[in-house]
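Q: What would this chain look like folded?
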Amino acid sequence: MNRAWTGFPRRHPVWTGVAVALVLLVLLFDWNWFRHPLERYVSQKTERTFRISDLHVTLGWTLTPTIRMHDVYFGNAAWSKEKAMARIETLEFSVSLRDLPGKVLIPRVALTHPELVFERQPDDRKNWILSDPSDKSPSKLRISTLSVDQGRLRYIDYGMPFSIDVQVGTFDPASQARVKDAKAKPINDRYTTQYDFKGKYHDAAFSGTALTGEVLSFQESGVPFPLKGSLVAGTTRVDVEGTIADADNISAIDTQLRIRGRTLANLYPFLLLPLPASPPYELQGHLILKGKTYTMDDLAGKIGATDVTGHGTYVDKTPRPLLTADLHSKLLKLADLGPLIGVQTRESGGKPVASQAQTRNRPAAKATEQATDPDHLLPAGSFDGSRLQKIDADVGLDAARLEMPNALPLESIHASLHLHDSILKLTPLDFGFAGGTIASQVLLDAREPTLKSELQANFRGIRVDRLVPDKEAIAQGAGTVGATIELKGTGNSIADAAAKSNGRIAAAIAGGRISNLLDAASSLNGGKVLELLVGGDKTIEVNCGGMAFDIKDGQGTSSLFLIDTEQTQILGSGNFDLARERFDFTIAPKPKRMGILSLRTPVRLYGSFRKPDFQIEKGPLLARAGGALALAAAAPFAALLPLIETGPGVNTNCAAVERQVGGAQKQARAPVKEKK
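A: My prediction, written as structure tokens:
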């Protein structure tokens, strides 16, 4: 035992010396011994200048050491016009050693007084790639959280193009306590950092302010941080409050969103959604992002005077994003959404609202809106079909009540829009109309620069009394009208497509009764008119009525034009021109009974769709009047002979009429909706 014990003192000074040396090394070790080798290594590896004035490392007991650098200077890529990519007073970050060498995971980065410039070239070169500046492969660097204390960050994407300049400032929430009460709680207990930013996106300038917490999740963390801010871009303003995860590439959103502006179309450069031009709008809702799906719940607001509620989703996927929405309105003013189909609308101040062609890009948005001919009725505004190539959509719309320009008797709308592979289908597109319905389907093919369009529409059970309620002689009658329309055309506006359309239009009347006075007046039967004026008017039955037009290259030619009443057979013929928006019809009344004081003669209806006119055919009328004058010279009572109606009209074969108008007769007999 004594020998073994006496051996220990001989080895004790050695172990003591080693321990003392290790302690002295730890106490006296200066990480700045590695500073110059580190500067040379990084500079050579990245081919950029890298300098620091101080280096310190805290190892700790985990595999996540903390590194602190002072007065950091890091040069920019050779292709950049900016000399330095980074100037930072203090840079502190931690590194996850367990994730090396597969990726460089930085759990935390803290910057004090940084000046940073991030740039991306059109060929996808990025100045933050820390290897070869021309390397376009994905970066292995991942930063989980970021905090900034007083600094400036700039990002420039030359390919998009996009640029943003951010000034960062920090503050103490306690300093925001209410002045009147020193013991009051801070106005906010969530926000400690303010970001003031401005920039451009596709030549559209924007600016704003955002408040966040001290630390932002930055990349692939999924950790939400609080955000409250506003963005202003031209006449558009966006306000947001909630949480967002990962500032570099947003992975989650849960915010209340409010957006308002002059026209929805101005959002296109930012959202790349083919929204229509519109009057001033204001919308709000609850925006959520999970994965690649954006959801807008509790959507509510107004577009012009039109109220909108509902919800929608937007899925970011290839080859095109998908927009789905279910929208409702108590009152929809079609003029508010008119530019969607090329109708020019105006703001409350009287200024024209921008069309889609204006908002395709910012230069186009500043151009003067193409004026349309005021004498034309069909919308001539150009529709930008290229927007339909950038997105797929499934959207439903229900409006309990419609308000139409020109007092058209449209009452409600139910529509379902489906846009896939650049082909838009509105099916169904149903309107409540004059007590009946218009059940239609529309197809737009935008795969080529010039749109191809198809329209199928059935007018079902349209009530005559509601169709022209301000025309008492007609409105006091009864009956329903039905019609079928089948058209195909090409063109980027409704007017252009109509001018090149081909197809057929047919209409019929069922269960009709009209004013006897109106019937007599239509045949210029003066004796009958006098009788009714003295004895009182009454209604007479319309046996049948129908008209059909064949349309080729925008030119419509009548193949049937007939109305048959108890007392008169009215025959007509004519044509119309959809390109020039003009028509020319001749209507020849043929009374079925004898009468006196008849000046029966054809009537010509003609003019433009907006300004129709009529005239009485003078030939037959002058012949009768001339005969009456000649006989009056010989015998006064004989002057009545040319004015006696012989009744050449015959009863119409209504079955044959029904066969010619086809499905229009069935639509006319559809059940009538009672007026509420």
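The CA atoms of residues 119 and 218 lie 18 Å apart.
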